[in-house]
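User: Design a sequence. Structure:
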């Protein structure tokens, strides 16, 4: 799924702080409404961010800004 980020949101992304390491949880034990961003190398014992997400997305706001490139005006997809 491709997500668009408005240019007005780019400045906001810079102010988002990294979630606390205390949220981290083994991927296999992560439930619904937590960030599934894998910390470190993916493996059968992968650890994910685990920060709460309330918007139904797979990643928290901090990790979404890493995963998705902001949309640029005039860019053809």
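Assistant: Done.
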């Amino acid at each position: 799924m491709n997500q668009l980020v408005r240019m007005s949101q780019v400045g906001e992304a810079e102010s988002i702080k990294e979630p606390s390491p205390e949220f981290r949880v083994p991927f296999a034990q992560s439930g619904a409404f937590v960030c599934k961003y894998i910390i470190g190398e993916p493996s059968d014992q992968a650890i994910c961010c685990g920060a709460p997400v309330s918007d139904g997305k797979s990643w928290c706001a901090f990790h979404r800004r890493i995963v998705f490139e902001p949309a640029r005006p005039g860019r053809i997809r």
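The chain is about 20% helix and 10% strand. Residues 1-5, 7-11 have pLDDT under 50 and may be disordered.
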